[in-house]
Every structure is written in C-alpha cells, then in structure tokens.
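TL;DR need structure tokens for one chain.
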Amino acid sequence: MKNLPQEQVDALGAAYKQAKKGREKERLHALWLLARGYKRREVQEIVGVSKQSLGSWVTTYGKQGIDGMKEKPQPGNHHKLTKEQKETIKELITTKTPEEAGLEGKFWDTEQLKKLVRKKFEIQYTSYSSYYELFKFCGFTYHKPDKVNKKQTLSSKEAFEEKLKKDWRSTARKMGWYW
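>> reply
TL;DR here they are.
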C-alpha cells in the first residue's frame, strides 16, 4: 500500500471523504492511512480493527479496487410479511386470545405467534428475533414475570384473577409477551 501512485492515494482519500455508510467509510479510512505511509499496527489502533480485518481489506482492495470496499446487501429474513399482513396480525393479537384465534392457550407467546403467522399467511421466520420484532410492531413489550409473593392470601389471589377475567381486553393491549 505504501508504493501506490499518488492518484490512487488521492482517489482513496476522496472516496473516504465521500463515503456515507459507516463500514465502508471505516475500510476506506484504513486503506487511505496505509497508502499515506502509516504502519499497519498504527492503523489498527486508529481505526480500531483487527489485524485480520485490515489484511482482508488490503487483499480485497488489491483485487477489486475501491468498489471492493463498498457495502453489499446482507442476506436474511427481510420483510416476509407485508405492512397489511402485519396490521392484520396486530388487530388479531390485540383483540383476541389465542383460543379465540383458533389456537391453544390463553396468552400470546412466541410459539403462539409463530403458529398464527404460519396458519394465516403460510409464512415462517427462521429466527425468533423476527417474531420479537413483530410483537414490538404490535405494541407489545417484553416483561419478565414478577416473582410470586408467597405470603399473599388465597382470597387476594382469587380477587386478582377475577379482575383479570372481567377486563382482560383492556389489559391485553398493555400485556407483554412471555417465553
């Protein structure tokens, strides 16, 4: 990298200054520093990358030039459900229990949501984080269950359960999901 012609060094500097995406900018910055005569160890400390990453970037730059430093699309679970389908799911899980939606169980959890999405739209995510995101979209938040107070009386427990039965629809919107 030290023996690059000045026009390539200038091109790296210009590309670095114009880059908008974080990783792309980081790669170009590291290469530009190397081209300007900095040692690899210095560049590692300045940019905050590993020796292997830096070596990989140098190799890629040697083979593909500046274009090799650009970010490429990442594979994954991108938007299997449309906005309309998500709205349908939101309407269902905020107004009905799993039993009312044709599933088993009284509360929505990740497994129930997975079954609903598969049943309704014939779609299955490979990652549970996609279902967590769907819960977030629907306005649910994750809450760990509180520990049970062992000193509570049976009558106070029964009163609480009755209150839940009476107004579960209003609490369903505030209720978090559990797994």
